[in-house]
Design a protein that fits this description.
alpha/beta, 2 domains, nine-stranded mixed β-sheet, globular
């Protein structure tokens, strides 16, 4: 039961402000009351915000710093080491082939299940009260927030320097001597580029650096292993819905390309079509908020127990190491941010000059993938860029537009996105 009369267990609170220590403390205090925070990108456009909030139906929307500070005070947050057991997981949003965001909902957990969820993260990542965790990625994403929560629950300290800036992060590493961090491969590439020009800081304080969110180029991975202390670097494969694997970089060196074996308490299997399924403990179960049909599609019964999929494809070697064949084609991952083509297509298709549009991803050395759009119609690139600027958050806006006579389709009418990605016009220019 909530200690605040206007918030009850199971209520949702939307957070549309930049990440900070106060942000994480508010999340923890809400979760301890069974109130579920919904972290959202503060850069959402008014259209995106209205769509999301209509589905989430929050009791409270926190969309400016004064409101966050007021909520922080009213919750009694700020006592280091005084955090109670979280009784829920934050509800992060994901999309799918429809492009309609849906919340990943875990409900309010019984104390035993809640304790098991905290212990699982603590045991895997070895959070302690001596940790100094450097927050590099935006806290409205699931992985950065999960690492920050784990650190505070263990009694450690957070350093939140703000939006990514390689020079500022380099100075923070030298001054605060962080022991742990999470990032995406794009961050690593930008840090290495900066360090090549300005010098690398002393990294000996790090006991753990974890990365995920996109494929890590092999040269970046090898440089990561060389730069950071032996045994300190990890990769994991997961999604907003749940975590699949964890892999020390030394394992990757022995098996280049792997994302590791199943995390403790999980079992992996792969269909004949290479779809990856993962069983999870009861405390890690989820549904899609307000979308029972989508939930049913994500789960199935297996001999090892109920398993879920997010549609990614891969293979398992005889020792249980997972290799990804690729994410499902309706997903583009740019700088660690999931971009769903259907959502972008629905915005661009609203222009009266667009007859057909297909959005797809292309490899990009810095971002992993960049968002591209193939368009059939009488419309200019400037018009489409203006439309995207008003309707889509920055990561979702196409970086390249291709104007074509027709889109390639399968016999059943599905766009062949991979064929579009092979067009010469899609290459960097």
């Amino acid at each position: 039961m909530s200690s605040r009369p206007d918030l009850s267990s199971g209520d949702r609170v939307a957070l549309l402000v930049p990440g900070s220590l106060a942000y994480v403390e508010v999340v923890l205090h809400l979760l301890a009351d069974g109130v579920v925070p919904v972290p959202l990108d503060p850069r959402l456009t008014p259209r995106e915000r209205a769509t999301v909030l209509g589905d989430v139906r929050p009791v409270l929307v926190v969309d400016d710093e004064p409101t966050l500070r007021a909520l922080h005070r009213r919750l009694g947050a700020g006592s280091r080491g005084g955090y109670r057991l979280p009784l829920a997981r934050p509800m992060h949003l994901t999309s799918g082939t429809t492009g309609t965001p849906k919340g990943v909902w875990s409900g309010v957990l019984a104390p035993e299940a809640a304790a098991a969820l905290v212990a699982e993260e603590r045991d895997l990542w070895q959070f302690t009260d001596s940790d100094v965790h450097l927050v590099i990625s935006p806290l409205h994403h699931s992985a950065p927030l999960r690492f920050a929560i784990g650190t505070l629950l263990a009694g450690g300290r957070l350093v939140v320097p703000g939006p990514f800036d390689a020079a500022r992060l380099t100075a923070v590493i030298a001054e605060d001597r962080p022991t742990a961090t999470f990032c995406v491969p794009t961050h690593l590439q930008r840090l290495f580029t900066y360090w090549d020009a300005h010098g690398r800081p002393d990294l000996s304080s790090f006991r753990m650096l974890a990365h995920a969110g996109a494929a890590c180029p092999a040269p970046v991975k090898r440089r990561l292993v060389e730069a950071f202390p032996a045994g300190s670097t990890w990769e994991f494969y997961g999604s907003t819905e749940g975590q699949f694997t964890a892999c020390r970089s030394e394992e990757w060196l022995e098996r280049p390309g792997t994302v590791g074996r199943a995390r403790p308490g999980r079992t992996l299997s792969v269909d004949t079509d290479r779809t990856i399924w993962c069983t999870v403990p009861e405390h890690a179960r989820f549904s899609y908020f307000g979308a029972p049909e989508k939930t049913a599609e994500a789960w199935r019964d297996t001999p090892a127990g109920p398993a879920f999929t997010v549609g990614d494809h891969g293979r398992l070697d005889p020792d249980g190491y997972l290799y990804l064949d690729g994410r499902r084609e309706d997903l583009v991952i740019s700088g660690g941010v999931n971009v769903y083509p259907a959502e972008v297509e629905s915005v661009l298709a609203a222009h009266p000059g667009v007859r057909q549009v297909a959005v797809f991803g292309m490899p990009d050395e810095e971002w992993g993938q960049r968002v591209c759009a193939a368009v059939v119609g009488e419309v200019t690139e400037a018009e489409l860029r203006d439309l995207a600027r008003t309707q889509l958050a920055p990561a979702k806006r196409p970086k390249r537009y291709l104007f074509v006579e027709d889109l390639p389709h399968t016999a059943t009418g599905k766009v062949r996105r991979l064929e579009l990605s092979r067009l010469p016009e899609a290459a960097p220019g």
